[in-house]
Write a structure and sequence with these properties.
Elements (H helix, E strand, L loop, with lengths): L4 E5 L4 H12 L5 E6 L2 H14 L2 H7 E5 L5 H7 L5 E4 L6 H6 L1 H21 L4 E7 L8 H15 L5 E4 L2 E4 L2 E7 L1 E2 L6 H7 L5 E4 L5 E5 L1 H14 L5 E4 L2 E4 H8 L4 E4 L21 E3 L3 E4 L9 H6 L3 E2 L16 H11 L1
Helix pairs in contact: 1-9, 4-6, 6-7, 8-10, 10-12
Length: 339
């Protein structure tokens, strides 16, 4: 068991609950602080954890902390004695963010700023900020807020230094992970299609629409990998496959009709995991790609470290790239696992 302590924002969401359970199953942290704003979800998660743990372990390892990432002072209090922060809290619904842009800024942009600033002030060692493919060359408000959150997280490394006599010591290392749709998560396309099973037809916005797909367990493993490996400033991107949305519907119910209703405000037909320049500074690190910042004034060893890895040779990383389309049987397995 690690003697490190973890705080996870948005800890009662789909990712948060899965990550907490993963950490407990693998005995990764001596203390886990679950930070979120919904007391009912905290109560439900508390009951679930208690049912799988003995009371002594629960009392020593788990702490629930009511709070909102918009509240800097509350975050600072929650981060006392914390070694690792995973920032998963966000407003994620594309149309809702279009119609409530001020709320999206308060949570996704200002909230991320608060998390990074509080972590630096609290001498947290590692921060991983969760991002999305919608942050890449965004056309909607949600994606724009996540793009700004990514930029702030990466460049806040400039401030995570402390003067120690005549030397500068780097304390807080802040990185991002960026991935596509989580199959089976709350509000995911699989869940939406399952809710339509009693309807006369599936409604889809565009017949050609494609998306990247990822299993929730793989996303959790990627975040833990980033905690262990990142030096601060990287954006870690998984090697994902993609498919058409209509193919998901056909797997869930091949007999049901499909009605095309037109794209919603801010909706992309295809998603990207690299922008048009990131391939220039991206490296293959095994299961993932590591994108380095264009400017790095905080760690002279960052570029040197990644020179030992292969430079990425693909310029495009889009969900309609033909070499990224998932094999039908693999897609069936991914969907049926959740259904």
């Amino acid at each position: 068991m690690s003697n490190q302590s973890l705080l996870i924002t948005g800890g009662t969401g789909t990712f948060g609950k899965t990550f907490v359970n993963y950490c407990l199953e693998n005995d990764l942290y001596s203390r886990i602080v679950i930070f979120s704003r919904d007391e009912y979800k905290q109560h439900q998660l508390s009951k679930q954890l208690l049912s799988s743990m003995n009371r002594e372990d629960y009392d020593s390892k788990i702490r629930f902390f009511l709070g909102d990432v918009r509240d800097y002072r509350r975050l600072k209090r929650a981060m006392r004695g914390i070694d690792v922060v995973v920032h998963a809290a966000a407003l994620k619904h594309v149309p809702f963010c279009e119609y409530n842009p001020d709320e999206a800024i308060k949570t996704n942009v200002n909230g991320t700023k608060n998390v990074c600033d509080a972590a630096i002030e609290s001498n947290v060692k590692k921060v991983v900020v969760l991002s999305t493919d919608k942050a890449v060359e965004p056309i909607n408000f949600y994606g724009s807020t996540k793009m700004l959150a990514e930029k702030y997280a990466v460049y806040s490394n400039n401030y995570s230094k402390r003067l120690n006599d005549s030397t500068t010591e780097k304390l807080t290392k802040i990185s991002c992970v960026r991935y596509g749709n989580i199959v089976g998560s709350r509000g995911s396309i699989v869940e939406i299609f399952k809710s339509m099973k009693q309807n006369d037809c599936f409604t889809i916005t565009d017949a050609d629409m494609t998306r990247f797909w990822m299993d929730i367990t793989d996303s959790v493993k990627m975040v833990q990998w980033s905690i262990e490996k990142c030096l601060g400033g990287e954006i870690i991107i998984p090697k994902l496959k993609s498919s058409k949305i209509v193919d998901i519907a056909k797997i869930i119910d091949p007999k049901k009709d499909i009605k095309i209703i037109g794209t919603r405000p801010g909706e992309k037909i295809h998603e990207q995991l690299f922008n048009r320049r990131e391939h220039e500074n991206a490296f293959d690190v095994g299961d993932y790609y590591a994108v380095l910042p264009e400017n790095n004034d905080w760690n002279s060893k960052l570029e040197t470290h990644y020179r030992d890895f292969t430079h990425v040779d693909r310029k495009s990383y889009a969900s309609n790239d033909l070499d990224l389309i998932i094999k039908h049987q693999d897609l069936v397995h991914l969907v049926e696992k959740e259904v």
